[in-house]
Structure formats: structure tokens, C-alpha cells
Amino acid sequence: MPHRVAVLALDGLLPFELGIPHRIFGRSLSPDPGNRGEKLYEVVTCSVRPPGPVRTDSDYAILVEHGPEALATADTVVIPASYELGPVFEEGRLTEELAAAFARVRPGTRMVSICTGSYVLAAAGYLDGRPATTHWSSADHFQRTFPQVRVDPDVLFIDDGDVLTSAGVAAGIDLCLHLVRRDHGSAVANEIARRTVVPPYRDGGQAQFIHRPVPEPQFATTTAARAWALGRLDRPILLRDMAQQESMSVRTFTRRFREEVGVSPGQWLTQQRVERARHLLESSDLSVDQVARDAGFGTATSLRQHFQAALGVPPTVYRRTFRTSADTA
């Protein structure tokens, strides 16, 4: 049976965030030759009340066809943000409707929040003593309301096993893709990311809010240089070689690259090589030495250093953990 995801629609919800689980989980398809194309998840939307309309923060309501009983059958529950949380936001306590709805959730169900949906998880007690995040603009209020939660306002999402929280809006996409990757591997997650036209991976520890002005529009970009570099990650790539792809000086290219990408060319190359190594560790039986060469790190020692710095675990542990998780799923 497909993994069942219940998305809890609360009054005042943001339609964009409500649609994220449906777009990511609902379009994730099996790559297995025996059942290729079959859906890996069943996604349903439910309310804390019997089926009926639920208000949004826009000028329309949505008709939800499932009541809180859907929570009792869920393997994963996702709570998008709402602007009408009432006592949940103001006092840190559940309403009677919410409390009754959460009483239906089975022990061991995976709980996920997008943006300020974390308030609901915290009020229900799921975040007591655990790390969590929410939208950066609400982080201080969230911490005051729930002092028992270890709030980290500077990350895109936090995976604490059976409870996961994300920052605002786009970070919900990152978190859902992370779950698909965790459940079924990078090939499935990358494919749904391509179909959704979003980056396949943004590290959960990446900063939410960077004080960097939007650059002025430029006719010349660094897109071609990045595409050129991605096609030869297994070979040495010098900064001047990338600059030559755009017919720019190294100084101009470096400045333009930072404006467009947000990091230096060297940092970006390392990120792409780590991502290549992740994919090879997940999807192949290549030795760590061969993965290091194919990803452009040259030696296993260099791969281990960069991999540990980026992900907090060595390549062998990552491969063993990932494959155990994917095989179990």
C-alpha cells in the first residue's frame, strides 16, 4: 500500500503551502521496473471538522472532503501554516477541535509542519524537549510561547526522526523533497524536483534569511559557466576556466557569480561535488575511492573531509544509513 499522507487544513490556511505536499508526495512515482509509474504516496486533505468548506487567507474557501477521521489512517501528518490559529498562537494551547483531532493520530505517525504549522505541533506536545524551526519572523514569539522547545531560527528545516519542522513556504518544498529522498532515494526525489522545476536539494542547515540585496538585472550571466562545470565535475576546474566560458575577467565573473548564486564559485563547486558524491553513494556500488574521483575530489581523504564538513557524517556511514533506510521503506 502507498504511504498515506494526511494534510490537515485549518481555517486561515495558505493555499500555496496546502498544495506543497500534494505536489511533491502526490507526484512521486516508483522507479522499480516491476511497478514503474505507480504512486508511492496517497495524499488526502482533511479538516478538524466534518467534510465541508475551510477558509483560506485569500478571497476563497476550499471544500475539504475528509474529516479528522483521516488522521487515524495516516502514516505521515503534514500541518501547513494558518493565519487563524487563535489560542494555539496566542496561548500555546490546542482548541477542543484540534485536541480531539490529534487524539486520533496513531502512535509512531510521522509528524511534519510547514512554516507556522509548528505552533500546532508544539501545542500538541510533539516538540517538547526537541529541536524545531519555524518562519524566522515568528521564531522569537515561538520560543517565548513554547520555552520547552529548542528553537533554531536559522535553518530551512529540521529532521528529528519522526517529527520534522520547516521554515516558511519554499522550505516546505525542501522538507518534502528531503522526506522523499529519505524514503525512496535521490533518484525519485530528483525526478520530482525536475518535474516541479525546483532545486533537488537544499541542505536543511542552510540559513533562512540572508541580508543580500537582489542584484540589478544583467544581460550577462554565469549560467553557461555553471552548466559547463557540472558537465566536468570529475576533472580539475579552475576559476579562470569558468570565467572564460562567459568571456569575463576573473574579478567580474566572481562578483557576478556571487550576485546570482549567493556563494563563491569555489563554494558552489564543492557543494555540487558533495551532491554528486551523495548520488553515487546512494545509487551505485562504487568504492569510496572511485566516488571521490568521479565527484572531483581526487582522493578518498579529500572526499571524507568535505563530506563530513557538509553533512556531519563520513561517506561510508552515509551510504550504510541511507541504504538501510531506503531498503526498509
Would you write up a description of this structure?
Helix 1 (15-24) packs parallel to helix 6 and helix 6 runs antiparallel to helix 7 (186-196). The longest helix has 19 residues, at 265-283. The chain has a 6-stranded mixed sheet with strand order 2-1-5-6-10-9. A two-stranded antiparallel ribbon has the order 3-4. Strands 7-8 form a two-stranded parallel sheet. Residues 209-215 and 325-329 have low confidence and may be disordered. Strand 1, helix 1 (15-24) and strand 2 form a beta-alpha-beta unit. 43% of the residues lie in helices and 12% in strands. With 329 residues, the protein is an alpha/beta fold. The protein has helices spanning 15-24, 87-91, 96-102, 118-123, 139-145, 170-184, 186-196, 223-230, 239-245, 250-261, 265-283, 288-294, 300-311, 315-328; strands spanning 3-8, 41-46, 52-55, 61-64, 76-79, 110-113, 131-132, 150-151, 157-159, 163-166. The chain has 14 helices and 10 strands.
For this entry, give a set of tags.
two-stranded antiparallel ribbon; 6-stranded mixed sheet; 329 residues; 43% helix; alpha/beta
- Estimated structural class: alpha/beta
Q: What's the overall geometry?
A: globular
Question: Can you tell me the residue ranges where pLDDT is under 50 for at least 5 consecutive residues?
Answer: 209-215, 325-329
Largest sheet data: 6 strands, mixed
Rg, alpha carbons: 22 Å
Give the rounded overall mean pLDDT: 89
Give the topology string: H per helix, E per strand.
Answer: EHEEEEHHEHEHEEEHHHHHHHHH
Strand content: 5-15%
Number of helices: 14
- Termini Cα gap: 12 Å
Q: What topology, given as strand order, has the largest sheet? A: 2-1-5-6-10-9
Proportion in helices: 40-55%
Number of strands: 10
